[in-house]
Amino acid sequence: SVIDDSKPLPAPLLPRPPLPLELSRWLVRRRLRGSSRLLRFLRQRGLFDACVEYPLGNGVTCTLPLYREPDWDAHDLALYEHELVAWLAAFVRRAREPVTLIDCGADIGLVSLKVAAVAPVARVVAFEPNPVAYPFLAYNLARLGPGHVATRAGVADRAGQGVLLRPDHDPDSPHAAFVRPVDRGDFPLTTVDALGLAPGGAIALKIDVEGGEAAVVDGALGTLRGAAEFAVTYEAHPAVSRRTGTEPLSIAQTLATLAPVSVAVVEQPELVVRLDRPLFEQLPPTRTWNVVVES
Q1: How far is the C-alpha of 150 from the C-alpha of 139, rounded, in Å?
Q2: Helices (H), 149-277
């Protein structure tokens, strides 16, 4: 059977995951040989040409497309960015003002949805330029309730147009695609400041844009400067840092000009981050890290 809903989706919405998906994911988690190939075979045969709604808690749900990588089930959703979600949720709970969560590079909205499931987020404003992910982001935020907004756009330091490109270090993954500003693009570029948020509230700014993080922050300085308090999280990816020639902690240095801040790494909370040293001299350049900066 298929669940009916007023918001259109590009694939049928099933009441539960197909049994072959759950079995395949169980095999993958146990590292059985050939299990990943089995998943790819089943997807190619069209067995996953659908989407499923998963409960996240407190009435919040996430509708997930099954026909694109990664192949996730409820167990994977529970583990996804759980440390980052816990940190953002803690900020929302202790904030003195209602929190607007601005999600740049939201994909289908999973991080925002997981935070909203455990903490009282006043409003989610999410941006995603990918045409495959965006319908699910819009659907998920509509289900979250009125006032939560999804926009198909990239976020940068100025308005314009953009295209999505895939990097040489990961050319097969749509999740590694980054925005390139161009004169004539596939989607609009905007800034956080263009939202025109009233000063005095609390802002949680989550950035996952594969190398354009500094531009997003530069286009958000007015909003962050006017906030009663802010928290900013962004990815530090070694391959992206090499591609762009940027130092991840330069973003934290920029934010430190707005207000006294604390800087931490979600996956290494015991690390005392020094802003006068490159991040990948303080952490091994073998994985992606989530940097968090809080006023």
Answers
A1: 9
A2: 213-218, 221-226, 238-244, 249-256
Mean pLDDT confidence for 173-201? 93
Would you state the structure tokens that stand for residue 189, as one six-digit string? 């570029």
Q: Measuring CA to CA, which residue among 134, 174, 165 is closest to residue 151?
A: 134
- Structure token pair of residue 163: 């295209």
On whether the CB atoms of residues 156 and 162 are closer than 8 A, the answer is yes
User: Quick count: other Cβ atoms within 10 Å of Cβ 69?
Assistant: 12
> C-alpha 21: how far from its chain's center?
24
* Mean pLDDT of the 50-57 span: 92
Q: What is the dihedral of CA 110, 78, 132, 103, to 10 degrees?
A: 20
Residues 6+ apart with CB under 8 A from 118: 57, 58, 85, 89
Instruction: Report how far apart, in Å, the C-alpha atoms of 53 and of each of 9, 118, 165, 250, 252 are.
Output: 12, 18, 30, 39, 37
The stretch 141-154 carries a mean pLDDT of 93
